[in-house]
Amino acid sequence: MSDAPLVFAPRPADPPPPSTIGVVGWMRANLFSSVPNAILTFLGIYIFYVVVSAIVNWALVNAVWEAENRRQCLDMVGRSGACWPGVAAWIPNLIYGLYPKDQVWRINTGFLILIAWAVPLWLPRVRSKVAIGLSLVLAYPFLASYFFHGGQQTLVWTALIALGATAFAWTWLTSLAEMRFGLGFGPLVARLFGAADDERARRIGWGALAALYVLTFVIVSQLDFVEVQTRFWGGLFLTLVISGIGIAFSLPAGVVLALGRRSEMPLIRVFCVTFIELFRSVPLITILFMFNTMLPLFLPEGVEVNRLLRAIVAVCLFASAYMAEIVRGGLQAIPKGQYEAAAAMGLGFWQSTSLIILPQALRIMIPSIVGNFIGLFKDTTLVSIIGLFDLLSMSRAVGEDTRWLGLFIEPFFFITLIYFVFCFLMSQYSLNLERRLGEGQRR
Amino acid sequence: MKFGVSLLMAAATMFGVVATASAQQTLQQVRQRGSLNCQVGLPTPGFYALAANGTWSGMDVDVCRAVAAAIFDDPSKVQYQSVTSAVRFTSLANGESDMLSRTTTWTAVRDGQLGLEFAGVNFYDGQGFVVPRASNITSARQLDGATICVLTGTTTELNLADYFRANNMRFTAVTNENVNVLVETYLGGGCDAYTNDKSGLAARRSAFPTPNDHIILPETISKEPLGPVVRHGDNNWGDIVRWVLYGMIEAEEMGVTSANVTQMLQSPNPGIKRLLGVEGNVGQGMGLPADFMVRVLRHIGNYGETYERNVGANTPIGIPRERSLNALWTNGGILYAMPFR
Amino acid sequence: MSQSTAIRRPATPPLRLGTLANDATVRSVFYQAVTFVCVVGLIWYLVSNTIANMATRGMSAGFDFLDVSAGFNIAFTLIPYREGDSYLRVFQVGIANTLLVAAIGVVFASILGLVVGLGRLSTNWLIRTLARWYVEILRNTPLLLQIIAWYFGVFNLLPLPRASVDLGGVMYLNNRGAYFPAPVPGEGFGLVLLALVAALIGAVLLHLWARQRFRATGRPFPSVLVGIALVLVAPTLVYLLLGAPLTWDWPVLRGFNFQGGFSVPPAFCALVVALSIYTSCFIAEIVRAGIQSVGHGQTEAARALGVKPSRTMRFIILPQAMRVIIPPLISQYLNLTKNSSLAIAIGFPDLVSVWMNTSLNQSGRAIPIVAMTMGFYCVVSLAVSFVLNSYNRRILLRER
Q1: ipTM exceeding 0.85?
Q2: Which residues of C fall within a CB distance of 8 Å from A277?
Q3: pTM exceeds 0.90 for this model
């Protein structure tokens, strides 16, 4: 036994073998870790190459970019390359349908308002997000329908449009006030006026809102938009309108149906289950078909229901049935303890549902709701079958134009890209949301 | 359960219903609405073509416009309803459309069983085939065993089956309701022949990559009298559509055009006087003003004018009219208006 | 009321409207009555309007058209059909075609979905990425467009009949479809089928016995292999003993195309491929989520116990993952069935295309035709969800 303490000096570790680091290492680990893996890799590369090169050749390399009509395209490259000028000539129609060209700015403005309205929902330090979201869902349709449809204003109609405009103005005033001063719009005005107590402050706040309403009412009554009937609506615009209304309607309707399905009252439960199962078990195309051809028969003679409205009613009912099942899933995911705790606190059915259960359930459901929306957006291609000029029908119309007769694949490719971009962005957003919402729940 | 029971009861009641009765006056409804709901098909060049600016034009569209001109003195008061052929009769029957004008063949079953009334014929067509020149086929009789592209939901589909059954031949159908899909399939070699009404074949062929590699077979395998249709039951409305169409044909026969209709009002010819409402009152019985044909001719022109404007030899459709069925009876065709008196 | 003196019942409060409104039973009855009246009233209103409208417009809703001859050709029929057959036959043809597409689609979609789902969990980066983009791209484009893309992008580009792709001299592939030899059963072939059925039953019984023994004693028995052998050998023996009573109808190139044999049109191929691929994206995600839902500790524990990886998957991961997978899988299968109605875009004669489109147009009977179509989909959906739900209930975690 020596006195000197034994010191273990570890030998420096060998550097990792060159084959496991860098590009080579990454490739070895990820692509060629075994023989089957290497075969899979080569197979993958081959499939990728074949598909991509065929598409690139047709859509870009051999494509014709400038021509007067399809005959010229065909004379240049035949069918081996795409003929894009036809699509380019019809792009305004693919996006806005048959909407008069000089009125198209109204659609653009309408959608810009929608985006501007939704922006505060993502801004930090804005606290009234629930109120803003609600105002968006409830008041935007009035504003949008006037922008899109236009026409004669009656007193009630003007009042409703002004309501939409007021809600929009209030949204931005409130969010600016909250970001700058941490106060809502009403309290801010009250403070500017030096309100003494809460009661007066509230009164001033309401007064400011009323003044805002009067102001917008005057402005709105001055607006005079030409009427654009719904039969001129089409293209991407129509697709967005149908799916937007569908999702906005289906959410509350789905909640009601799901609550009805879980109700203890047998008759209500039977009605809800019948409705949900009936609409979920048949393809959307048959529902659209039925509403399109049968709705005029269901209504008393002389009542004419616009074709677009019929499609929207069908889509709304269909989406509600699906939404009801999503909401049911959300409700089932809430632990029983929450219901029991709410009951123990003496909350009634409506109180516990609206204050305790639904807010939690809705948060879990957001990804599925976005998924449902994507599905609905894709399904709107079916309205072309009942003769609405949505994106798909509009792309068919290109090939029936005398100048571009037979041009069918190219517009089709183009709208597929549009659909993909929209759906992909939405699905990525939904994934992102899922991740963020999951963070709070993860332990 | 209750829901199911009531549905069953409803169904049971409905099956008993097979009745025909006079509908509310369509003319009155159209006047009230201020516009004519005219059903056309999915855009098709020459007959109901849709331009990028949203306007409709064509042979069949001109019939809609003419009826609107007769009623309102304004051919733009038409709401075009473009629906697939599958729902065309349902859309007319359920009251959505006031009339349809969309290359619809007049058949006994449609006229007699579907609650429809044909108001006349504005184009005589017939079904033919296009085949690749390289196939060395020169007659439809050589198509035994072929695969044939055919538009679904049309009389074309039925005629095709009839023709092959009658000649004891077999075929495989490739069906679709989109002409471009069929053409694309045919060009890709997915079928040996493409069949449709001959009026459309020539135009389609001209849009093939190499039109000369394809030929139209000489046979016409069916009669396709195409014309506007109204709902059964409102005879007055049927009369309006019928006589607006006949009026246009009669006007051509008498040489009245959109250009000379104002001078023709002074014409001593009693036939022209009756047509233009200067003498007699054909319009009154139908609830139209006496000069309804003046309105039609001023805005739309006579039959010959709409023909040359939309499908004539100088248009991309290019269907020559001389010696065809669609020439006037005085020129060797079968186009013939009932006497306007 | 034998002990009327012992227990005093609480005094009944005086009957007031306020009390009634707060009584749960009364309220429930009231709500239900109101709903019932509203719903029945609505239905009555709609039905009476319909009857009145149909009467004034001279529409007929009867089923008398069903035995009228349809007169059009159907490109692909699973059950025999000729142009002169009745509309009822057309309806049956449509149903058979829809069910065929759905059945084949479900099988392919499940296989593909499983492969891609496992691919998304692969250790190979390229495979993982390809699988991810496969899912992302195909899930985010409308199915209707995909069906048309498959039809024109692939099946219409196949060679012409004269230059058919010859797959071993048995199967031919061209742009008119795929051609297979069709079996023509001879005399006594029923016995072979009988042997097959008997062998199948035997295999199932064997498997049940083996599982019972495995549970009781822990000794495994290769019941699957033996079962397969049984199913293969028994009918073959009978077949050979009877002197091979089966001939084949070979497709032969004659005239325009192959004649004889069994063939499916390109529209069918495009539809099945598009449906399977589209649905497989959703199934892949379901499979991935299911496998990921099984805690990693389970895999590790199995490894620690020395269970082979293949057995870990089969006996430990999959049974647990199945619980998560089955419910959404059911709805995907139903979606596939419903989506087959998009066949109309490429003209495959499924129920919607041949019945709700062609027949409706030729006969003009909207109400019975639409009702029959919807009725068929309702029946299929309810039947499938009933069967799969009962299976789901069986494998559900027994919670105590």
Answers
A1: no
A2: 378, 381-382
A3: no
